[in-house]
Amino acid sequence: MSISIELKRAVYEENDSRARAINERLRSRGIFTINILGGPGAGKTSFISRVAERLRAAGDKLAVIEGDVASDLDTRFLRSLNVEAYQIETGGDCHLNAPMVEGILGRMTVADGSWLFIENIGNLVCPAEYVVGEDIKLVVASVAEGSDKPYKYPAAFARSAACILTKIDLKEAVGFDEAFFRSGLAGTAPDAVLLPLNGRTGEGADEIVTWLRSVRERVLRG
Amino acid sequence: MHEASAIEAVVKIVSEEVAKRGAPDALPRVTRVRLVVGETTGHMEDSLRFYFASLGRGTPAEGAQLEVRYVKPQLRCTSCQKLFERKRFSFECPHCGGQGVMTKIGSEFYIDSIEVEEDKP
Fold this sequence. Notes:
The complex is a heterodimer of chains A (about 220) and B (about 120). Chain A has helices at about 15-30, 45-55, 75-80, 100-105, 150, 155-160, 170-175, 180-190, 205-220, and strands at about 1-10, 30-40, 60-70, 85-90, 115-120, 135-140, 160-165, 195. Chain A has about 220 residues and is α/β, with parallel strands linked by helices. A seven-stranded parallel sheet of chain A has the order 4-3-5-2-6-7-8, sandwiched between helices. In chain A, helix 1 (about 15-30) packs parallel to helix 4 and helix 2 (about 45-55) packs across helix 9. With about 120 residues, chain B is of the alpha+beta class. Chain B has helices at about 1-20, 45-55; strands at about 30-40, 65-70, 75, 85, 100, 110-115. A three-stranded mixed sheet of chain B has the order 2-1-6, covered by helices on one side. In chain B, strands 4-3-5 form a three-stranded antiparallel sheet, with no helix packed on it. Chain B is elongated and about 60 Å long. The N and C termini of chain B lie far apart (about 45 Å). The mean pLDDT of chain B is about 95. The interface of A and B includes residues 94 and 125 of A. Strand 1 of chain A pairs antiparallel with strand 6 of chain B.
Protein backbone atom coordinates (compact mmCIF):
# COMPACT_ATOMS: atom_id res chain seq x y z
CA MET A 1 0.00 0.00 0.00
CA SER A 2 1.34 3.38 -0.97
CA ILE A 3 0.81 6.26 1.42
CA SER A 4 1.77 9.92 1.23
CA ILE A 5 3.24 11.50 4.35
CA GLU A 6 3.17 15.25 4.65
CA LEU A 7 6.43 16.57 6.09
CA LYS A 8 6.81 20.31 5.34
CA ARG A 9 10.31 20.13 6.78
CA ALA A 10 12.83 22.80 5.80
CA VAL A 11 15.87 21.25 4.15
CA TYR A 12 18.23 23.38 6.24
CA GLU A 13 16.36 22.94 9.54
CA GLU A 14 19.28 21.26 11.31
CA ASN A 15 21.72 23.97 10.25
CA ASP A 16 19.21 26.65 11.25
CA SER A 17 18.67 25.25 14.74
CA ARG A 18 22.40 24.81 15.36
CA ALA A 19 22.95 28.39 14.18
CA ARG A 20 20.27 29.61 16.59
CA ALA A 21 22.02 27.84 19.45
CA ILE A 22 25.38 29.41 18.51
CA ASN A 23 23.78 32.84 18.31
CA GLU A 24 22.08 32.49 21.69
CA ARG A 25 25.35 31.41 23.31
CA LEU A 26 27.32 34.28 21.79
CA ARG A 27 24.70 36.87 22.49
CA SER A 28 24.39 35.84 26.13
CA ARG A 29 28.06 36.81 26.40
CA GLY A 30 27.53 40.17 24.75
CA ILE A 31 29.22 39.08 21.53
CA PHE A 32 27.88 40.67 18.35
CA THR A 33 28.35 38.49 15.27
CA ILE A 34 28.50 39.58 11.64
CA ASN A 35 28.44 37.18 8.69
CA ILE A 36 30.18 38.78 5.71
CA LEU A 37 29.21 37.72 2.19
CA GLY A 38 30.78 38.79 -1.09
CA GLY A 39 32.34 37.45 -4.27
CA PRO A 40 36.04 36.61 -4.45
CA GLY A 41 38.10 39.78 -4.43
CA ALA A 42 35.20 42.04 -3.44
CA GLY A 43 37.26 43.41 -0.54
CA LYS A 44 35.88 41.46 2.42
CA THR A 45 39.22 41.12 4.19
CA SER A 46 40.17 44.76 3.54
CA PHE A 47 36.79 45.80 4.92
CA ILE A 48 37.44 43.78 8.08
CA SER A 49 40.96 45.17 8.50
CA ARG A 50 39.76 48.78 8.10
CA VAL A 51 36.94 48.32 10.58
CA ALA A 52 39.16 46.33 12.96
CA GLU A 53 41.81 49.04 13.18
CA ARG A 54 39.15 51.59 14.16
CA LEU A 55 37.41 49.35 16.67
CA ARG A 56 40.69 48.46 18.32
CA ALA A 57 41.80 52.08 18.47
CA ALA A 58 38.58 52.75 20.39
CA GLY A 59 39.39 49.93 22.81
CA ASP A 60 36.89 47.36 21.48
CA LYS A 61 37.66 43.65 21.47
CA LEU A 62 37.22 41.63 18.32
CA ALA A 63 37.91 38.29 16.70
CA VAL A 64 37.69 37.12 13.11
CA ILE A 65 36.83 33.76 11.56
CA GLU A 66 38.15 33.49 8.03
CA GLY A 67 36.46 31.06 5.67
CA ASP A 68 38.29 29.94 2.57
CA VAL A 69 38.18 26.95 0.27
CA ALA A 70 41.97 26.71 0.50
CA SER A 71 44.86 28.64 2.11
CA ASP A 72 45.17 30.75 5.24
CA LEU A 73 46.54 33.87 3.54
CA ASP A 74 43.78 36.13 4.87
CA THR A 75 44.22 34.85 8.41
CA ARG A 76 47.96 35.45 8.23
CA PHE A 77 47.36 38.94 6.83
CA LEU A 78 44.98 39.83 9.66
CA ARG A 79 47.33 38.34 12.25
CA SER A 80 50.13 40.49 10.82
CA LEU A 81 47.91 43.45 11.84
CA ASN A 82 47.58 41.89 15.30
CA VAL A 83 43.95 40.96 14.70
CA GLU A 84 42.92 37.73 16.41
CA ALA A 85 41.99 35.59 13.39
CA TYR A 86 41.17 31.91 12.94
CA GLN A 87 40.91 29.96 9.71
CA ILE A 88 38.26 27.57 8.48
CA GLU A 89 39.52 25.81 5.36
CA THR A 90 36.55 24.05 3.82
CA GLY A 91 38.56 22.04 1.33
CA GLY A 92 35.98 22.49 -1.42
CA ASP A 93 32.74 23.48 0.26
CA CYS A 94 31.50 26.73 -1.23
CA HIS A 95 29.94 28.16 1.94
CA LEU A 96 30.32 28.10 5.71
CA ASN A 97 27.66 26.36 7.77
CA ALA A 98 26.74 26.33 11.44
CA PRO A 99 28.63 23.11 12.34
CA MET A 100 31.87 24.53 10.89
CA VAL A 101 31.52 27.69 12.97
CA GLU A 102 30.58 25.63 16.04
CA GLY A 103 33.77 23.62 15.51
CA ILE A 104 36.13 26.56 15.28
CA LEU A 105 34.48 28.39 18.18
CA GLY A 106 35.41 25.40 20.33
CA ARG A 107 39.06 25.91 19.40
CA MET A 108 39.31 29.68 19.85
CA THR A 109 38.71 32.19 22.58
CA VAL A 110 36.39 35.10 22.04
CA ALA A 111 36.30 37.56 24.92
CA ASP A 112 32.90 38.55 26.32
CA GLY A 113 31.59 41.74 24.75
CA SER A 114 33.61 41.25 21.54
CA TRP A 115 32.77 41.81 17.96
CA LEU A 116 32.95 38.58 15.96
CA PHE A 117 33.45 38.92 12.21
CA ILE A 118 32.88 35.81 10.11
CA GLU A 119 34.21 36.15 6.59
CA ASN A 120 32.33 33.70 4.42
CA ILE A 121 33.69 31.94 1.33
CA GLY A 122 33.97 34.29 -1.67
CA ASN A 123 30.71 33.40 -3.38
CA LEU A 124 27.34 35.15 -3.69
CA VAL A 125 25.24 32.02 -4.15
CA CYS A 126 25.07 29.43 -1.36
CA PRO A 127 26.45 31.46 1.57
CA ALA A 128 23.12 33.33 1.34
CA GLU A 129 21.27 30.09 2.17
CA TYR A 130 23.09 29.30 5.40
CA VAL A 131 22.92 30.99 8.77
CA VAL A 132 26.00 30.38 10.88
CA GLY A 133 25.01 32.02 14.17
CA GLU A 134 25.19 35.64 13.08
CA ASP A 135 23.19 38.62 14.28
CA ILE A 136 23.40 40.27 10.87
CA LYS A 137 24.67 39.56 7.38
CA LEU A 138 26.56 42.15 5.36
CA VAL A 139 27.23 41.93 1.66
CA VAL A 140 30.45 43.39 0.29
CA ALA A 141 30.35 44.32 -3.42
CA SER A 142 33.00 46.23 -5.34
CA VAL A 143 32.31 48.70 -8.12
CA ALA A 144 34.70 46.63 -10.26
CA GLU A 145 32.26 43.69 -10.22
CA GLY A 146 29.68 45.82 -12.03
CA SER A 147 26.42 47.46 -11.09
CA ASP A 148 24.22 44.45 -11.84
CA LYS A 149 25.09 42.30 -8.81
CA PRO A 150 21.82 42.78 -6.85
CA TYR A 151 19.87 41.69 -9.95
CA LYS A 152 22.01 38.61 -10.50
CA TYR A 153 22.38 37.46 -6.89
CA PRO A 154 19.19 38.69 -5.23
CA ALA A 155 19.28 36.27 -2.28
CA ALA A 156 22.66 37.47 -1.00
CA PHE A 157 21.48 41.08 -1.05
CA ALA A 158 17.98 40.35 0.26
CA ARG A 159 19.32 38.84 3.49
CA SER A 160 21.86 41.58 4.23
CA ALA A 161 21.38 44.49 6.61
CA ALA A 162 23.87 46.62 4.69
CA CYS A 163 25.83 46.61 1.48
CA ILE A 164 29.44 47.75 1.69
CA LEU A 165 30.33 49.18 -1.71
CA THR A 166 34.10 48.89 -2.09
CA LYS A 167 36.83 50.15 -4.44
CA ILE A 168 34.90 53.38 -4.87
CA ASP A 169 38.10 55.04 -6.14
CA LEU A 170 37.62 52.94 -9.31
CA LYS A 171 34.07 54.13 -9.99
CA GLU A 172 35.01 56.31 -12.97
CA ALA A 173 37.53 53.89 -14.39
CA VAL A 174 35.08 50.97 -14.54
CA GLY A 175 32.01 53.05 -15.46
CA PHE A 176 30.01 52.01 -12.41
CA ASP A 177 26.29 52.85 -12.77
CA GLU A 178 25.40 53.75 -9.20
CA ALA A 179 21.74 54.56 -9.89
CA PHE A 180 21.21 51.11 -11.43
CA PHE A 181 22.99 49.44 -8.51
CA ARG A 182 20.93 51.41 -5.97
CA SER A 183 17.67 50.51 -7.63
CA GLY A 184 18.71 46.84 -7.58
CA LEU A 185 19.47 47.15 -3.88
CA ALA A 186 16.11 48.84 -3.27
CA GLY A 187 14.37 45.90 -4.96
CA THR A 188 16.23 43.17 -3.09
CA ALA A 189 16.90 44.77 0.28
CA PRO A 190 14.75 47.89 0.76
CA ASP A 191 15.86 48.27 4.39
CA ALA A 192 19.58 47.83 3.72
CA VAL A 193 21.90 50.82 3.80
CA LEU A 194 24.60 51.38 1.20
CA LEU A 195 27.95 52.21 2.80
CA PRO A 196 30.84 53.17 0.49
CA LEU A 197 34.43 52.23 1.30
CA ASN A 198 37.81 52.88 -0.19
CA GLY A 199 39.77 49.98 1.28
CA ARG A 200 43.13 51.44 0.26
CA THR A 201 42.75 54.73 2.11
CA GLY A 202 40.14 53.77 4.69
CA GLU A 203 37.77 56.49 3.44
CA GLY A 204 34.24 55.57 4.51
CA ALA A 205 35.32 53.26 7.35
CA ASP A 206 34.42 55.75 10.10
CA GLU A 207 30.83 55.95 8.83
CA ILE A 208 30.66 52.15 8.62
CA VAL A 209 31.85 51.81 12.22
CA THR A 210 29.25 54.35 13.38
CA TRP A 211 26.52 52.38 11.60
CA LEU A 212 27.80 49.05 12.99
CA ARG A 213 27.79 50.45 16.53
CA SER A 214 24.19 51.60 16.23
CA VAL A 215 23.03 48.19 14.94
CA ARG A 216 25.03 46.34 17.59
CA GLU A 217 23.49 48.39 20.35
CA ARG A 218 19.99 47.77 19.00
CA VAL A 219 20.54 44.01 18.64
CA LEU A 220 22.23 43.43 21.98
CA ARG A 221 19.58 45.44 23.80
CA GLY A 222 17.12 42.95 22.27
CA MET B 1 28.14 22.13 -5.67
CA HIS B 2 25.71 23.53 -3.12
CA GLU B 3 23.05 21.08 -4.27
CA ALA B 4 25.23 18.32 -2.78
CA SER B 5 24.96 19.55 0.80
CA ALA B 6 21.28 20.33 0.27
CA ILE B 7 20.57 16.78 -0.93
CA GLU B 8 22.62 15.37 1.93
CA ALA B 9 20.18 17.13 4.27
CA VAL B 10 17.18 15.87 2.27
CA VAL B 11 18.38 12.27 2.45
CA LYS B 12 18.96 12.62 6.20
CA ILE B 13 15.44 13.93 6.81
CA VAL B 14 13.88 11.21 4.63
CA SER B 15 15.86 8.51 6.48
CA GLU B 16 14.70 9.92 9.84
CA GLU B 17 11.06 9.93 8.76
CA VAL B 18 11.27 6.36 7.47
CA ALA B 19 12.94 5.17 10.67
CA LYS B 20 9.94 6.48 12.62
CA ARG B 21 7.67 4.23 10.61
CA GLY B 22 9.10 0.75 10.80
CA ALA B 23 11.38 -1.67 12.56
CA PRO B 24 15.02 -1.35 11.45
CA ASP B 25 14.74 -4.62 9.49
CA ALA B 26 11.37 -3.77 7.91
CA LEU B 27 11.53 -0.12 6.87
CA PRO B 28 8.93 1.06 4.39
CA ARG B 29 10.23 1.75 0.88
CA VAL B 30 10.28 5.39 -0.21
CA THR B 31 8.87 5.77 -3.71
CA ARG B 32 8.66 9.54 -4.02
CA VAL B 33 10.17 12.65 -2.42
CA ARG B 34 8.46 15.96 -3.16
CA LEU B 35 10.68 19.00 -2.86
CA VAL B 36 9.54 22.63 -3.07
CA VAL B 37 12.25 24.99 -4.30
CA GLY B 38 12.00 28.78 -4.56
CA GLU B 39 13.92 29.98 -7.59
CA THR B 40 15.98 32.52 -5.65
CA THR B 41 17.68 29.67 -3.80
CA GLY B 42 19.46 28.86 -7.06
CA HIS B 43 19.14 25.09 -6.83
CA MET B 44 19.28 23.54 -10.30
CA GLU B 45 16.95 20.62 -10.99
CA ASP B 46 19.51 18.56 -12.92
CA SER B 47 22.01 18.96 -10.12
CA LEU B 48 19.46 18.08 -7.42
CA ARG B 49 18.56 14.91 -9.34
CA PHE B 50 22.15 13.95 -9.92
CA TYR B 51 23.05 14.21 -6.23
CA PHE B 52 19.78 12.60 -5.13
CA ALA B 53 20.59 9.54 -7.20
CA SER B 54 24.16 9.28 -5.97
CA LEU B 55 23.82 10.37 -2.32
CA GLY B 56 20.59 8.38 -1.89
CA ARG B 57 22.33 5.11 -2.68
CA GLY B 58 22.38 2.76 0.29
CA THR B 59 19.78 4.86 2.15
CA PRO B 60 15.98 4.46 2.39
CA ALA B 61 15.73 7.12 -0.36
CA GLU B 62 17.47 4.86 -2.88
CA GLY B 63 15.38 4.38 -6.01
CA ALA B 64 12.77 6.99 -5.02
CA GLN B 65 11.49 9.50 -7.57
CA LEU B 66 12.49 13.08 -6.82
CA GLU B 67 9.72 15.52 -7.67
CA VAL B 68 10.82 19.15 -7.75
CA ARG B 69 8.24 21.92 -7.74
CA TYR B 70 9.73 25.33 -8.42
CA VAL B 71 8.20 28.53 -7.05
CA LYS B 72 8.64 31.72 -9.08
CA PRO B 73 9.66 34.72 -6.98
CA GLN B 74 6.86 37.23 -6.43
CA LEU B 75 7.68 40.86 -5.80
CA ARG B 76 5.39 43.32 -4.08
CA CYS B 77 4.99 46.83 -5.43
CA THR B 78 5.62 49.43 -2.72
CA SER B 79 3.13 51.78 -4.45
CA CYS B 80 0.11 49.70 -5.54
CA GLN B 81 0.89 46.66 -3.30
CA LYS B 82 0.24 44.20 -6.16
CA LEU B 83 2.33 41.05 -6.46
CA PHE B 84 4.21 40.49 -9.71
CA GLU B 85 7.02 38.48 -11.32
CA ARG B 86 10.04 40.58 -12.14
CA LYS B 87 11.63 40.97 -15.54
CA ARG B 88 15.38 40.51 -15.84
CA PHE B 89 17.40 43.43 -14.49
CA SER B 90 14.33 45.24 -13.25
CA PHE B 91 12.29 45.53 -10.06
CA GLU B 92 9.72 47.84 -11.66
CA CYS B 93 6.03 47.10 -11.13
CA PRO B 94 4.36 46.23 -14.47
CA HIS B 95 1.02 47.65 -13.23
CA CYS B 96 1.99 51.12 -12.04
CA GLY B 97 5.75 51.50 -12.59
CA GLY B 98 6.42 51.62 -8.83
CA GLN B 99 9.37 50.08 -7.00
CA GLY B 100 8.97 46.36 -6.38
CA VAL B 101 10.59 44.60 -3.45
CA MET B 102 11.32 40.91 -2.94
CA THR B 103 8.99 38.87 -0.76
CA LYS B 104 9.43 35.47 0.86
CA ILE B 105 7.65 33.91 -2.13
CA GLY B 106 10.39 32.31 -4.17
CA SER B 107 12.80 31.60 -1.32
CA GLU B 108 11.17 28.33 -0.17
CA PHE B 109 13.22 25.19 0.26
CA TYR B 110 11.48 22.32 1.99
CA ILE B 111 10.39 18.71 1.68
CA ASP B 112 6.66 18.88 1.14
CA SER B 113 5.90 15.17 1.47
CA ILE B 114 7.19 11.68 0.81
CA GLU B 115 5.43 8.61 -0.49
CA VAL B 116 6.18 5.21 1.01
CA GLU B 117 5.14 1.63 0.28
CA GLU B 118 4.09 -0.23 3.37
CA ASP B 119 3.55 -3.98 3.42
CA LYS B 120 0.43 -3.83 5.52
CA PRO B 121 -2.38 -6.28 5.04
